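=== RUN LOG ===
request id: a7f3
mode: sequence -> structure
chains: 1
length: 145
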Amino acid sequence: MKKILVLHGVNLNMFGKRDPAQYGTLTLEEINGQLGVLAQELGCAIETFQTNHEGEFCEKIHQAHQGGVDAVIINAGAWTHYSYAIRDALAILKVPIVEVHMSNIHAREEFRRHSVVAALAKGQIAGFGVDSYLLGLRAAWESIK
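=== RESULT ===
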């Protein structure tokens, strides 16, 4: 069975509590639940991971490289815009990477419009709330099935 890793970055554990106008009212657990249901429908396995610690995030990406993950979906949160450490960790991967964002980062503050992850990603989906994640899972699945 194909395995897809879903990485949630810094502050994303606060979904449902933080700025509902931008991020909606679903919690991270609810988002992960919807991803799990879709993964079952598609016939793939997912693993979800969230941390507020950049080093742990990089370690998880290293484990993905060593552990037979077939694709990665990433919402790095604020790290998207400046973490070259995460970008360099992702560059090690030999599998498709799909970048997702709940809000439309291109319609927000100037600093949010640049992604250091984007150049490594097969594609980017932004601005559709939880559907960004679900579309990202579909895109990752289509890339590996």
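=== NOTES ===
Residues 28-42 form the longest helix (15 residues).
The helical segments are 20-23, 28-42, 54-66, 84-91, 130-144.
=== END ===
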